[in-house]
Amino acid sequence: MSSSSSKQKATVRGAVAAFSLLASAYAQATAPTPGQPPRNDAPLGQFEIVGNSLVSAQQMFLGTPDKVYIIDKTEANPAQVNGHPAWAAEFSISQKAGRAMDIVTNTFCAGGNVLANGTWINVGGNMAVTAGGATADSQITGGQPYEDPDGGKSMRMLTPCDDGNCEWVLFGQMSTRRWYPTLETLDDGSIIIIGGAQWGGFVNDANQNNPTWEIFPPKDNDGPVNSDILQNSLPANLYPLTWLLPSGKLLIQSNWKTSFLDYKTKQETPINDMIEAVRVYPASGGTAMLPLTPANGYTATIMFCGGNDLQPDRWTTDWDIAQYKASPSCVKLTPDVSTQYVHEDPLPEGRSMGNLILLPNGKILCLNGAATGVAGYGPQDWAVDESYADNALLMPIMYDPSAPAGSRWTRDGLTASTIPRMYHSSATLLPDGAVLVSGSNPHADYAVDNVKFQTEYRVEYFYPSYYNERRPQPQGLLDQLSYGGPYFNVTLTKDDLAGDVNNVKNTEVILIRTGFSTHVMNMGQRMLQLNSTYTGNADGSAVLHVSQLPPNPSLFAPGPALLFVVVNGVPSVGVQVMVGSGQIEQQPTTLNVDLPPMTIAAPSDSGSGSGSSSQHNSQGSNSAENVAPRSYTALLVSALLSVASLVSLL
Q1: I need a labelling partner for 130 at 20 to 30 A (CA). Which of 14, 520, 609, 650 fits?
Q2: How far apart are alpha carbons 420 and 518 in whole angstroms?
Q3: CA dist 41 → 11, 37, 145, 230 (Å)
Q4: Which helix H or strand E contains 25, and what residues bound it?
């Protein structure tokens, strides 16, 4: 065979490969075009009571665009299911109403997170109990009145649905008991299960400590792996704060200690101790990874706010801890760059049990909690009707990471809630950009009479300042994102850009996993901005050219997430997408295709308007850019077939 013939074949095959890559970008399924929120007259910066959760929201997560799943502990909730009190519920965002669900074994202080295939797991819990939280005689059946068995080793599974037919399934047992375990989704979509206690009590101790971690689904036959940091950080080492880092290692923060864990080599490396305050349960400071963006090189920075400065020997119940002032301290750590904690603007007041919720405009909402005390409850005389905390903080705070140092926290435009959200409260972002808040039950059982902080079922929505704005309605968002590969095009009309095509310069595509909310943590919560460029059109519309995720699954673990397009700080309604392959496996990665340059055409003289109706019916757009993806697809497929024919002739 001649060298020219070989080169010809190589050239043609290269062309086929290139066309295949491009055609695959257009062949991907697109998500439904997001619409508008259900209202445009919400009380901005305020909380609104919207419904009843049926069970107290000790644990909570967004499962579908319309369903939030709530998990409680075994107790005497008035709502019933299958002849006993309900301990789980499904709350419809659109209907503002709940459906009682049956969940088996005591889920008290369990942990949870989502697998790569979109299935949520909930693991661990505590012993079977009777009325008032007393230990039941039978741990196998649970005994009267609840007959709910021991949940310490339990593994529960739910695949969320919108038809009301999904239920929690008990699918196995761990090899060891875990009460207060942390779960973090890994880069292959499996989940690491970390720490916990075996039985119960205010804090952990050496007699019941479970200083181990394991992975589900299991990767080998090693079983639980010992952890030095969990062995050495007693007694405040429950729900250890854990994040998957871009490096592929895990950061674990427990009591005053901090370590890296390389779960693949099973090696831990201690780093600098936490400063100023304990952040882990029961000090319960708020924590969040700041947004990962192209501007910061997708470098992870984690913020810790509040908690308290108690030393290990002070975690006892023989003094009035409920009146001990919480810390206002905030610190940050950028662990893949430096292991040194650095100071951040402090909170306006000390706060324990304050949730930090990532908003699609890049800001962080801090809400819930108390000015004094800690998480927990008990029968001591000094306790506030059992609560180990007092002086509820009803006023939220907003953090802006882009603001100058010294002015990043603000209460401008914010109004206080009327409901104390103490121990066992939770919060989660919703697709429309509101925040759902529920829970609070610092009691051993259901308690609503003659107590300062009652068992709460009231659900609130908090409405950020952008809520009533006309939302972008981007067309062309994909329903599944990959780690690298071809970019995709997203169309924005003139209306989406508020009448000015130059607003495309301040437009971002944001991916958020809202996480599993419990005990002030949102396990797995993460925000990543996709890289993008733009083409502004003469008719006032624009096309965003959007990269897939960077080819590193450790930046954002595979599984479901919300995708937003944010124009001048106003987010579209988030659409649920699948990140990665949808399977628990080593995720396929490839280099990102380079994006086109950023351009904006000169305005046309015709004054043609937005090129699309406000409903964004796909038939109502005459913009050439809106038609382009369809014609590009036809051209690409035609070219692919033509070149493939050439190959067959060689």
Answers
A1: 520
A2: 16
A3: 60, 10, 46, 49
A4: helix 3-27
Residue 265: both structure tokens together: 């080599």
Block residue for tokens 């937005």: 610
| Cβ–Cβ < 8 Å for 347, 330 | yes
User: What is the residue type of 515?
Assistant: G
Tell me if 590 sits within 8 A of 484, measured CB to CB.
yes
The interaxial angle of helices 624-649 and 3-27, nearest 10 deg, is: 150
Cα–Cα dist 647/650, whole Å: 5
- How many Cβ atoms from other residues are within 10 Å of residue 48's Cβ? 13
The SS3 of residue 558 is coil
**3-class DSSP state for residue 24?**
helix
Give the confidence band of 606 by pLDDT, cuts at 50, 70, 90: low
* Pairwise CA distance, residues 150 & 140, whole Å: 6
| DSSP 3-state of 246 | coil
User: Whole-angstrom Cα distance, residue 290 to residue 296?
Assistant: 10
Annotate 490-522 with DSSP letters as a single string: EEE-TTTTTT-GGGGGGEEEEEEE--EEETTEE
The pTM of this model reads: 0.90
pLDDT tens, residue by residue, 442-495: 999 999 999 999 999 999 999 999 999 999 999 999 999 999 999 999 999 999
